[in-house]
C-alpha cells in the first residue's frame, strides 16, 4: 500500500450544501502563506487560526444570538459565569466601584462580594426595582451597574427605564443579565443598556446538555476588550456545545411561548389552592411589579413561577416527593419542568434574617416550567400539594 499523508484534507463535493451547520472541532486552521496569515492576524482578512481565538461553530451561534438581541459582534464563551467574568474582570480597573442588584445569580453575587474586592474593586448591592435606592448607592468611582431584569427567585422586575436613564446621566456602564427574560420578552441593548449577558445554558440552549454563555457590548472598544480578555484567559466555548446550542435555538421561540403559557396557567392554578400562601408571577395582578412587567416585557411573562406553601420543611419535603415526575434540581430553562427550594440550596448560606426579609421561607419553591402537557403538569402539582397538606 502506498504511504499517504496524515491529513489529506478537503471535503467531498456537495458537502458545502448541508442544511445543518457542520460541527467543526478543528483546533487549528492552515493558512495559504505567511502573507495570508499576516493579513489574518492584522485583521485585514477574516479567517481562523486557533480555536481558542475563535472557531466557526461559536461564530455561527454568536451571530444568531446577535440577531435575536439586536447586538453586533457578541461573543460566545464557555458558560454564563464566563460571560459575567469577562465583563467584571475584563473591563474594570482596580479602584473602580461596581453596583450590583441585590438578588443576582448566586455566583455573580459571590464574584462581587469576594473576588472583585480581592483585586481592589469595591462593590455594593441595592434593589434594582427601587431607582432611588440605586441612585443613593452610586459613588463617584462607580463605573458599572450589573442587574438582572427579573430576579431569582422572587421574580421582581427591575426598573429598566430608570436604570438606563441613571446610567446615561452618570456616564456609567449598564450591564444586564438577560438569562431569565430572554430576547423574547425584552431586548436590553435596544432599550439603551451597554452590555448584555446570557447564560445560554438555560432557556436559549434549553435542553440541559450544554454549558455556554454569551456577552455583547454596544461599544466597539469594549467588544475588543471583552474578546481579548476571553481569549487570553481561555473562556472559549467548545465547538460541540456551540453546535448543540444552535440546535436548541431553532426551537427557542416555540419553547419559550409554550413554557410561558403553561407557567401562567400553573401560577393561576396554584393561587387558588389550600396550603398555598402566595404565588409570584410577574404578569399576575397580585405581583408587586405587575404594572412594570406589563410595560417592559411586551405582554410576556417568563417560564418561572414561584410559590410558598403555608407550612415548613416537612411540607416542603412531602411536596417534592408527591410531585413525582418533576425533577427537583436547581436549574432552569430545561424542556422538562424543574423545581428548586432556595432555603436548602441557592439561598442556604444567607442568614435566616436576610432569607426572611426576602420571603424565602421553608415553604418557598421556584418552578422552571417546561414543555409538558399543561393538564398533566397541573395534576402532578396537585399531587404534590395533597402530599404537603397530609404532612
Ligand atoms: C445560571 C445563571 C448564570 C450562570 O450561568 P452558567 O451557564 O451556569 O455559568 C448567570 N446568570 C443567571 C441569571 C443564571 O440563571
UniProtKB/TrEMBL annotation:
UniProt keyword annotations, A-Z: Pyridoxal phosphate
Cofactor(s) required for function per UniProt: pyridoxal 5'-phosphate
Domain of life assignment: Bacteria
InterPro entries with a match to the protein in the record: Cys/Met-Metab_PyrdxlP-dep_enz (IPR000277), PyrdxlP-dep_Trfase (IPR015424), PyrdxlP-dep_Trfase_major (IPR015421), PyrdxlP-dep_Trfase_small (IPR015422)
GO biological process: transsulfuration
Residues with the N6-(pyridoxal phosphate)lysine modification: 202
Family: Belongs to the trans-sulfuration enzymes family.
Protein name according to UniProt: Cystathionine gamma-synthase
Organism, as annotated: Primorskyibacter flagellatus
Amino acid at each position: 500500500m502506498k504511504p499517504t499523508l496524515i491529513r489529506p484534507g478537503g471535503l467531498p463535493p456537495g458537502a458545502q450544501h448541508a442544511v445543518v451547520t457542520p460541527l467543526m472541532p478543528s483546533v487549528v486552521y492552515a493558512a495559504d502563506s505567511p502573507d495570508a496569515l499576516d493579513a489574518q492576524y492584522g485583521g485585514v482578512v477574516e479567517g481562523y487560526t486557533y480555536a481558542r481565538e475563535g472557531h466557526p461553530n461559536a461564530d455561527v451561534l454568536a451571530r444568531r444570538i446577535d440577531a435575536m438581541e439586536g447586538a453586533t459582534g457578541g461573543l460566545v464563551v464557555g458558560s454564563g459565569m464566563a460571560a459575567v467574568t469577562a465583563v467584571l474582570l475584563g473591563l474594570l480597573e482596580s479602584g473602580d466601584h461596581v453596583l450590583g442588584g441585590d438578588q443576582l445569580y448566586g455566583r455573580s453575587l459571590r464574584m462581587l462580594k469576594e473576588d472583585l474586592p480581592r483585586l481592589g474593586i469595591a462593590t455594593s448591592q441595592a434593589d434594582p426595582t427601587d431607582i432611588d435606592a440605586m441612585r443613593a448607592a452610586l459613588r463617584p468611582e462607580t463605573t458599572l451597574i450589573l442587574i438582572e431584569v427579573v430576579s431569582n427567585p422572587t421574580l421582581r422586575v427591575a426598573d429598566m427605564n430608570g436604570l438606563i436613564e441613571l446610567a446615561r446621566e452618570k456616564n456609567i456602564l449598564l450591564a444586564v443579565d438577560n438569562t431569565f427574560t430572554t430576547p423574547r420578552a425584552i431586548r436590553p441593548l435596544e432599550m439603551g443598556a451597554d452590555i448584555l449577558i446570557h447564560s445560554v445554558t438555560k432557556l436559549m440552549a434549553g435542553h440541559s446538555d450544554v454549558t455556554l454563555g454569551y456577552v455583547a457590548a454596544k461599544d466597539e472598544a469594549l467588544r475588543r476588550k471583552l474578546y481579548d480578555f476571553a481569549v487570553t484567559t481561555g473562556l472559549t466555548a467548545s465547538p460541540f456545545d456551540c453546535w448543540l446550542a444552535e440546535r436548541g435555538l431553532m426551537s427557542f421561540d416555540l419553547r419559550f411561548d409554550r413554557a410561558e403559557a403553561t407557567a401562567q396557567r400553573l401560577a393561576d392554578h396554584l393561587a387558588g389552592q389550600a396550603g398555598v400562601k402566595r404565588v409570584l408571577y410577574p404578569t399576575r395582578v397580585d405581583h408587586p411589579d405587575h404594572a412594570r412587567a406589563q410595560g417592559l416585557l411586551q405582554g410576556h411573562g417568563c417560564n418561572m413561577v414561584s410559590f410558598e406553601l403555608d407550612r415548613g420543611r416537612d411540607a416542603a419535603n412531602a411536596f417534592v416527593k408527591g410531585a413525582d415526575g418533576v425533577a427537583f434540581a436547581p436549574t432552569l430553562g430545561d424542556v422538562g419542568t424543574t423545581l428548586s427550594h432556595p432555603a436548602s440550596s441557592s439561598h442556604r448560606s444567607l442568614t435566616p434574617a436576610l432569607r426572611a426579609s426576602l420571603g424565602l421561607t421553608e415553604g418557598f419553591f421556584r418552578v422552571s416550567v417546561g414543555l409538558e402537557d399543561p393538564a398533566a403538569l397541573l395534576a402532578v402539582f396537585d399531587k404534590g400539594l395533597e402530599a404537603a397538606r397530609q404532612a
